[in-house]
Every structure is written in C-alpha cells, then in structure tokens.
Specification:
globular, 2 domains, Rossmann fold, 8 strands, four-stranded parallel sheet, alpha/beta
C-alpha cells in the first residue's frame, strides 16, 4: 500500500534517523512510504501562539506539497498529526485551500494509529488507565528489549487517543509498556510555553521525570520527539540515567 509520509520538521532537523526508522517500520508492514517532498512545517507553533495568518503561510506549503492523491498521509508526530487532521480545516476555512485542507485532514493519521489500524481521531479514554508505578522490574538495558515507559504527549493523548495505539504497537513488537503515575500530565514543553514560562516548564518536567524514574525503567518513549527532547535535556541536567527514543526507533526492525 502506497502512503505519503511526513516526518515533521523537528524530526528532519534534529533526528532524521527517526524518520528513516519510521519508513522502515512501514515497509516492514508491507507499505510503500513516499516522503512528502517540499513539505516544511504543519504551522502548529504559530497557530498555538495565536498567529493564524502566519500559521497559514507556513502550513500552506506543506498542504500543497501533500497533493490531492487519495492516499493516507502517515505522520511521525502526534502533535503534527493533530494539527493537520483537527485544525487545518479551521485554519484554512474561507480560503482557496479550504477544500484541500479538509481532504488532507481526512487522510492524515499518526504513525502508531496507522500501524495498529486505529482511526486517527480518539479521546483520552482510549488510553489504558495508569496503574501506579507498574511492576517496575530491574532497569534492563533498553536495546535488549526490556521494559519501556510511554510518555503520553498532550495532543496525541487528548485529541488522537494515541496513548492506546503507542502501547498497542509496542506490545505487537514484543515490548511490554510499564505504566507510570501521572503519565497523562504535560511534560512542560508546550512549544513556546517552555520559553515564555521556563520555571513552570522545568517544574513540570521534573514532576514527569520523577514519576518516570520511579518505575525503575531506563527506556522512555513517545510518538512526539518534541516532548522527548525536552525531557531528555532536563534529565541530563539532573544526571538521570534515562534513555529517550521515539517509538519509531523502538519498532524499527533494523535495530
């Protein structure tokens, strides 16, 4: 099955290996991922900051790069998939790109939702409830296929229901997720929020890291690289021996 693949600008700029891993995962599932050439950003940073006009200008390039083929657009980011599938129709309403935005929104799906055959739309109720700190277990080396804790990014969890699909994809690959307390809470990144309110952002990251570390697992994953980079930076400042990898890297059959 031919699909369009959008890695996200953050992946392409900072960890292109995540995009490569996601494409290998799709190929292993029998799909033919075709990268969206010429795409840049989905427009979410400007949109979240209240700059709709600027967001349209940025997102329009990516929207037009997608073209109008009737194929799924698989996105390696829960927050970008949310922007494209949930907010593009509103962003482009009343413009010449309105119809194209609605069609693109209807065929956009986050990576793990696509892999598990789950619709992109969902709710927070789709995520299995946290069960305290889980069974913990020994802190096995992450590359050995040991325990993994899922960080639920806000957009993916609350607007896509991707908490369940990330866990399901990991389980299908033989990785059993361990639950942490407060997994549904924000990591404190929030794009420009972490810049405007750094002290609050750091406090939120510390709370999240304390809960993740309490599970005894070293491996943290998510469908959003932005959250992982934020938590990784704070963990390094604190000297915490935690590893942060996008879920595509854990599902990659080449690793």
């Amino acid at each position: 099955m031919v699909v369009r693949f959008f890695a996200s600008c953050l992946v392409e700029l900072l960890q292109p290996n995540v995009g490569a891993a996601a494409q290998r995962v799709l190929r292993a599932g029998g799909h033919d991922p075709q990268p969206v050439r010429g795409a840049t950003c989905c427009g979410q940073p400007a949109y979240n900051a209240g700059y709709a006009g600027e967001a349209r200008r940025v997102a329009r390039r990516t929207l037009r790069a997608l073209g109008d083929a009737d194929t799924a657009c698989v996105v390696a980011s829960g927050s970008c998939a949310t922007m494209m599938s949930h907010h593009w129709p509103e962003l482009f309403e009343g413009t010449a790109d309105a119809d194209a935005a609605r069609r693109a929104a209807a065929r956009t799906v986050e990576l793990t939702a696509f892999l598990t055959g789950t619709a992109a739309a969902g709710s927070a109720g789709d995520r299995p409830p946290a069960s305290g700190t889980g069974d913990g277990g020994s802190a096995q080396e992450p590359d050995g296929g040991g325990p993994v804790v899922v960080h639920d990014s806000c957009h993916a969890l609350r607007e896509l229901g991707a908490g369940a699909t990330v866990r399901r994809a990991l389980a299908d690959a033989g990785r059993t997720p361990t639950e942490a307390q407060g997994t549904e809470r924000c990591c404190g990144f929030g794009g420009s929020f972490s810049v405007k309110m750094p002290a609050v952002s750091v406090a939120m990251a510390d709370e999240k890291l304390d809960n993740l570390a309490a599970t005894g697992c070293m491996q943290i994953t998510s469908c959003d690289l932005s959250c992982l980079l934020h938590l990784q930076g704070r963990a390094r400042r604190r000297g915490l021996a935690l590893r942060f990898d996008h879920v595509a890297s854990l599902l990659d059959p080449g690793t």
